[in-house]
Automatic annotation (TrEMBL), chains A, B:
<dbReference type="InterPro" id="IPR006669">
    <property type="entry name" value="MgtE_transporter"/>
</dbReference>
<keyword id="KW-0129">CBS domain</keyword>
<dbReference type="GO" id="GO:0005886">
    <property type="term" value="C:plasma membrane"/>
</dbReference>
<protein>
    <recommendedName>
        <fullName>Magnesium transporter MgtE</fullName>
    </recommendedName>
</protein>
<comment type="similarity">
    <text>Belongs to the SLC41A transporter family.</text>
</comment>
<keyword id="KW-1133">Transmembrane helix</keyword>
<feature type="domain" description="CBS">
    <location>
        <begin position="205"/>
        <end position="261"/>
    </location>
</feature>
<keyword id="KW-0472">Membrane</keyword>
<comment type="function">
    <text>Acts as a magnesium transporter.</text>
</comment>
<dbReference type="InterPro" id="IPR000644">
    <property type="entry name" value="CBS_dom"/>
</dbReference>
<feature type="transmembrane region" description="Helical">
    <location>
        <begin position="361"/>
        <end position="381"/>
    </location>
</feature>
<keyword id="KW-0813">Transport</keyword>
<dbReference type="Pfam" id="PF00571">
    <property type="entry name" value="CBS"/>
</dbReference>
<comment type="subunit">
    <text>Homodimer.</text>
</comment>
<feature type="domain" description="CBS">
    <location>
        <begin position="141"/>
        <end position="204"/>
    </location>
</feature>
<dbReference type="GO" id="GO:0015095">
    <property type="term" value="F:magnesium ion transmembrane transporter activity"/>
</dbReference>
<dbReference type="InterPro" id="IPR006668">
    <property type="entry name" value="Mg_transptr_MgtE_intracell_dom"/>
</dbReference>
């Protein structure tokens, strides 16, 4: 399969067909194009063209296109559709995707759109989903699932299941509930292919079933599903009633977003931004961290101002401040990144004390190797062994302290319930810059006896 | 579902049961424990205990446990098992997991282990898989899949499918092939539940099917599967024959590893290390980047040495070198991270030139705001407006240059086929440190006329 590639020529051709209103040619051209690729095309068209394309194609395709569009493009297109047209799109979508789109609509029209949905059960399900916090299992789940009552026979179960399966894109598992809708267990599709139809469900279902609570955090759901290799997980409410189902494709997005967020925080970018966002959005995401860096730099300048009297005798010390600051920052970022990743994957065992001792040895080892190189360089360059020794000893000390700060900070934040990912990047770099320079000049002053 | 939590007490209890050889109690205790959790337990036991536990439990459970173990623990346990015992474990696994384990075994025993596998077809499949590069679709795929011939009737298809489904944990899709085993299309399970059994397959299958080539890179497979929301994708060889299938759970691991690798590179950690690795492994992963940082620092020191004559008149300039270096590093990391992420997600459009112009405006805007703050701080602190102005103008210039380097480098590396993720982190920080300080002192010299 050669992945679809959106070329300038294709985009041009589509835009021209739209402008010339060549509806049949357009429909023909788009027939074989996957909805995710139609979304890619619509993202690049202007608002009027994109809206025309969405209105032209069948809603069983365009509904999926809508879920894949960039948020601003979707908003613009939905603005140009009537409530009835939006309702037709939502009718084609799974309840979770439909609820996500409704949550983005202006409040005034939500009620009208919902009232235009012909399938009243679908509408009820969507309304149910709107109540859940976006950042919870309830906010991720869909209402589409196949469930059977434990008191049914396999025969009745197969019949009911066929009817339900009509509305469910991917079946995965058949969930078994009791008369109060409480989740009791599951039936696999494979069992169904091989079991005789005369058995009662009670005797054939598997009582062991993984599930999550509606209030569970998406990251936790992702951890459970990927640890236990699940492709779908049922969601229950506070009293154990089956209320929905989360499938792995939604969780893939959670994993990706989580990883991207940590990466962006480490790089000093807050908010979820992309390269194609406006300069204004990018500035809002980047400037606060740069400002933090500026404050750190001003702090470092102030500290160095306090050691100004050393400049006449030991100017060389000042030449090495960028080196000391950079090493403190690098070591801090390295050690914090390893801890943050360990916390994210839930595979940190043992006490904080042991971690700090290990990091200390690690930093001592790294610091020693680097300090020897620095010692010889400085000694040969400027010829004063004592100064070179003072700078090298400072480097080891700074690396050890930076490693300890880098290890301790994320562990501490995690203990206090704060996302440790903020501890990597500019935050740790800046504080390590200041500590590093303070330690450096203090040690130099002590050793050189100024 | 409350996720399983491995406590010290539970671990203690299990270790004691093993040491006292209380087999029945152990079996009872472990019966309800998921294999992924048994692996967590075995990772924490000593080698002798872990081996005992694996030998005690049924191989339909322990085979899955083996796939989840830490690599070093698995190696130790397999060392203590006979070829026959290993073969029994492999017999229970899907071909892809079995091949992964065989690839880790010492060469001398591979042949013996394979000859001990009773199911000869299973053994043949495993041997087939060993031929593929680990870093390709072929290395990810399993041989387990359900396929039917286009010339069969639906009735025969259902029969054959039932037999095949016995060996396939999750069916997902039924693939349709011709007499030469070439992939023609697919049947959905849902279709199967609702189609009459008298039709020939030729008339009912869906000819549109996504697939990947055996040589496709895992990252590309991940992109295709997550873009098109696929839960499984068939793999074909160079002449279009269906040779295997990749399922989404393997791809979740690829996505996670990819994200972690980029994050670690950005943090200056090469190789795939974890917090629990040995100090030696961690040093090997961290020291090279620190050494790069050291070289950068030495370069910065040498540059500053070249401006030594300025120190008597404008000592204040030297106080701001950490600030300049830090800002250059931060801006570089921010802009490169956004580009790296955009490249990873395949959503960068437009030319390199446009990106650089955008980044220049962005950097100018951010730089201007920060420079104004710096100007007033320096002016009030040291009272010389011209020096303060020189430092501030340098800051803006350095930020713009750092932003351009940060944007250009990953785009350039990507064009040359090199992983752009190495451009974030220490690499960009170090080069920006040097450029930043060089620009800073040059501009200061020009403006202050020394």
């Amino acid at each position: 399969m050669t992945p679809f590639k959106l070329t300038e020529e294709l985009l041009q051709e589509i835009a021209e067909l739209i402008d010339a209103r060549k509806d049949d040619d357009l429909r023909d051209l788009m027939k074989e194009v996957h909805f995710a690729d139609v979304a890619e095309i619509a993202n690049e068209l202007n608002e009027e063209q994109a809206t025309y394309l969405i209105k032209l194609l069948d809603s069983d395709k365009t509904s999926d296109v809508l879920t894949e569009l960039d948020e601003d493009v979707r908003e613009a297109i939905l603005n140009n559709l009537s409530s009835k047209e939006i309702a037709e799109e939502l009718a084609e979508l799974d309840t979770d995707d439909a609820a996500d789109i409704i949550a983005e609509l202006p409040k005034e029209i939500v009620q009208e759109v919902i009232s235009e949905i012909e399938d009243r059960e679908h509408a009820r399900h969507i309304v149910d989903l709107l109540r859940y916090d976006e950042n919870s299992a309830g906010g991720l789940m869909a209402k589409e699932l196949v469930k059977v009552n434990e008191n049914w026979t396999v025969l009745r179960c197969v019949k009911e299941m066929r009817a339900q399966a009509e509305n469910v894109t991917r079946v995965h598992s058949i969930y078994v509930v009791d008369d109060e809708d409480k989740l009791k267990g599951r039936l696999s599709l494979k069992d169904l292919l091989t079991t005789s139809t005369t058995n009662p469900i009670k005797d054939v279902y598997i009582p062991q079933v993984d599930f999550v609570n509606v209030n569970e955090k998406p990251e936790e759901v992702a951890k459970i599903m990927s640890k236990y290799d699940l492709e779908a997980i049922p969601v229950v409410d506070e009293i154990g009633r089956l209320v929905g189902r989360i499938t792995i494709d939604d969780i893939v997005d959670v994993i990706r977003e989580e990883a991207e967020k940590d990466y962006q925080l480490a790089a000093g970018i807050s908010q979820d931004v992309e390269a194609d966002d406006s300069i204004w959005i990018l500035t809002r995401a980047r400037l606060p961290w740069l400002f933090l860096g500026l404050l750190g730099g001003l702090g470092a300048a102030a500290i160095m101002g306090g050691f100004e009297e050393m400049i006449s005798k030991h100017a060389i010390l000042f030449f090495f401040t960028p080196l000391i600051a950079a090493m403190a920052g690098n070591v801090g970022v390295q050690s914090s990144a390893i801890i943050v990743q360990g916390l994210a994957n839930d595979d940190l065992k043992g006490s904080i004390g042991n971690r700090l001792i290990k990091e200390m040895f690690l930093a001592l080892l790294n610091g020693f190797v680097l300090a020897v190189v620095l010692l010889f360089f400085t000694w040969f360059w400027k010829g004063t062994f004592v100064t070179a020794l003072a700078i090298s000893i400072s480097l080891i000390t700074v690396i050890v302290v930076a490693g300890i700060i880098g290890t301790f900070t994320p562990l501490f934040l995690h203990k206090r319930g704060i996302d440790p990912a903020i501890a990597t990047g500019p935050f740790i770099t800046t504080s390590n810059d200041i500590f590093g320079i303070l330690i450096y000049f203090t040690i130099a002053k002590l050793l050189l006896g100024i």
